[in-house]
């Protein structure tokens, strides 16, 4: 399982363009990808701040999403809107979320190079304190 929370700061005046890109990404992700459990965008309290909740059945599915044609195809417009991005792997608290716990995973040898590049850009590692609370450390 891979659940991530992104806090995204947009350049002033780019909000409408960002929302247009995100609407496209939302539709494409839900219409063309498998293994997507959550993929949603939210406006934050502070002007120009957004959040994205992404949840995939596993890390590989997240990396495939990142390498997808629609994600890569919109990267230039996406990047032109963003002033700052903080992407964080999160772990659901037991019995407080319907989503499964985060897990580590490697990219299989037969995956395309683009997926391997996404793994290098976005390594997803479990935090030791999570494992202690799960009783697995």
UniProtKB/TrEMBL annotation:
It holds the Pfam family ABM. Residues 1-72 form the ABM domain. SUPFAM superfamilies: Dimeric alpha+beta barrel (SSF54909). This is ABM domain-containing protein. It comes from Candidatus Litorirhabdus singularis.
């Amino acid at each position: 399982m891979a659940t991530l929370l992104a806090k995204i700061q947009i350049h002033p005046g780019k909000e409408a363009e960002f929302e247009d890109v995100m609407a496209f990404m939302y539709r494409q992700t839900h219409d063309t990808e498998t293994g997507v459990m959550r993929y949603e965008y939210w406006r934050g309290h502070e002007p120009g701040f957004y959040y994205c909740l992404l949840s995939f059945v596993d890390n590989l599915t997240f990396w495939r999403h990142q390498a997808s044609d629609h994600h890569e195809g919109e990267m230039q417009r996406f990047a032109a809107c963003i002033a700052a991005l903080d992407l964080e792997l999160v772990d659901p608290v037991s019995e407080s979320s319907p989503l499964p716990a985060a897990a580590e995973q490697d990219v299989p040898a037969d995956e395309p190079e683009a997926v391997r590049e996404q793994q290098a850009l976005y390594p997803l590692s479990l935090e030791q304190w999570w494992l202690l609370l799960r009783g697995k450390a």
